[in-house]
Amino acid sequence: MEEIKFPTNESGLCMNEKGVPWEDLKIVQAIADSGSLAGAGRTLGISHATVFRRLGALESRLGVRLFERHRTGYVPTLAGDDLATTAARVALDIEAVERRLMGRDARLSGTLRVTTTDTLLMGMLSDELAGFQRTYPHIVLEVEVSNRTYDLSRRDADVAIRPTSAPPETLIGRQVGQIAQAVYVSRCHRETSGWVGPDPHLGYPVLERWMARQGVDAQCRYHVDSMLGMLAGVRSGMGRGVLPCYLADMADDLVRASEPLPELQTELWLLTHPDLRNTARVQALFAYLSDSLKARQASLLGTMAAS
């Protein structure tokens, strides 16, 4: 590559008077984080070829190599590591500015990103979010269904609706209910001695420990990484399983095999980032769900079980 002479900083990174565009910084950060062009492309939603072309153009413009290609992937040079660190810092600054600006938004319109679990969405929240959208038709809802750890500081979402007994200290919100759980079994397979349980990828150690204490973990022959998958397994007669009452009580082909289990009861929270607390659409969703979920308390607590 033909060398282009520009003044350099301590890492040897050539700096021209035009600076480095934010889009190019994101390319460098994505490659550094993923270690590959393909991984960077997936992160940014662009093709492998586009990442390759833009990286080459940036290196040519700066006159320095940013990454070395090894068998294990792309490894940043000193200059590349310097630029990737800068990109990460700039990203945090931009995300903080976006949160602060959104926090001043008094409009009941725009986009609201919500994250919740598949169980809550299918068992309860779809109806509530539909009612919210009818009430506020100019707010566009984007829902991410995930059991992974959520990061509202990075704008993964604006609002999280989660079962948790220990909400992150970096977030604010309100508890909107208690979720009861009980043991259920298929109505057609009541005599089964097998169990359906969580796969470790579900991240539900509390239930795993409960099953171990009850001595039923050894009888578990079907492990699933989602509560909806566990529900399907119990309904199919693959064994007994612990399920949220608000979800399993709706299934006519299931019957309870226990009372609600106090040690597995958990809190239901609405959470947001402090910078977003005054955003009109966030406040509207909090108020709407706080009111509408009050009518669901009997279902959440498992006091409406079918006989």
Automatic annotation (TrEMBL):
Domain of life of the native organism = Bacteria
Show the coiled coil region(s). Answer: none
Q: Which residues does the UniProt record annotate as the domain HTH lysR-type? A: 20-77
**An example Gene Ontology biological process:** DNA-templated transcription
- Keyword tags: DNA-binding, Transcription, Transcription regulation
Molecular-function annotations in GO: DNA-binding transcription factor activity; sequence-specific DNA binding
Q: Which family does it belong to?
A: Belongs to the LysR transcriptional regulatory family.
Q: What's this protein's name?
A: Transcriptional regulator, LysR family
Organism source for this protein?
A: Chromohalobacter israelensis (strain ATCC BAA-138 / DSM 3043 / CIP 106854 / NCIMB 13768 / 1H11)
State the taxonomy lineage. Bacteria, Pseudomonadati, Pseudomonadota, Gammaproteobacteria, Oceanospirillales
